[in-house]
Amino acid sequence: MNDVTYVVGVDCGGTSTEAAAYTLSGHLLVMEKTGPGNVIIGYDAAVRHIKEALGKIFDRLDPSACQLITLGVAGIDSSGLRAKLSAELAGFPPEKILLSDAQLAYYSVLQGEAGILLISGTGSIAVAKDAEGNWQRAGGWGHLFGDEGSAYDIAAAGIKSCLKEYDEGKKAGLLTQQILAYFQAVDVFDLLKKSYQLDKSRLAALSKVIAASADTDPQAAEILQAAGKKLARPVINLQNRVYAGQMGLRLGLNGSVLEKNLIVRESLVGCLTEEHFDVTVLNKETSCAKAAYYIYHERM
User: Fold this and answer.
1) 280 within a domain of the structure (yes/no)
2) Is 116 helix (H, G, I), strand (E, B) or coil?
3) What H or E segment, with its residue span, contains residue 254?
4) What is residue 170's predicted lDDT score, i.e. its pLDDT?
5) Which run of H or E residues covers position 28?
6) Is beta strand 96-99 parallel, antiparallel or unpaired with respect to 116-120?
7) Which of 109, 216, 221, 236 is 20 to 30 A from 42 (CA-CA)?
8) Residue 183 resides in a domain
9) How far is CA 44 from CA 41, 48, 70, 76, 297, in A?
10) Does some domain include residue 278?
11) Are 79 and 18 in contact (CB under 8 A)?
């Protein structure tokens, strides 16, 4: 295995850093995981984990046989850390390409072909590449001004439904009871106090409670259906901007909300179909690190 030429992809996520080496024919050679790789939340620890993951790969494979390293890093451009991170990784051969986490997923899920990638996890964003190779995006503006249809948005909608129920003088419904129980809150005032004390990731986790209730609670199902409709909007915007006049739509899906929630997916695809798009859905089937393989061949 030491004489096989290969590429390395690194998915620098908020939970873990996943590095994988693939042969030039796309066969997985080795995969290594280390700690969180989000350079915005904890730069020093993230860099240490990224270096550790790459080091483990090169401990098992000949570094001189590596043809390309591609890294997907959340917020790499908006954070202004591109040059700094590149300098940190200068000791690793060979050429390195730094992308956003969404761009890395685009290549992996769409398998190097044209289309739109939609992500809905804690946040949400849609990305595509135009005919000139320029990246285009819609959504992804953060939980204060965007991220519609994300786990955070679903959680916020659930809490708003509790408050609306109170304002209208209604008895607490099943969903409200479950949300209060999740927060261990005695009433909506306690709920509001506790929800403001959480960071966005912990608040977004409430979406799992709402999703679990959807089979038996119409209110929860309605929130999820609304999330799917919200997610359709950035996809439609990108399709009209990047692939104007084309009704065939290759849509890659990534992120926990889309991967685990059938109601959201069906609502999303239904909205796109109503707009007369011929939708082909592509699901994430392998590590986003495989983007390195597709990028290498795109450059050949």
Assistant:
1) no
2) strand
3) strand 248-254
4) 93
5) strand 28-34
6) unpaired
7) 109
8) yes
9) 9, 6, 20, 15, 32
10) no
11) no
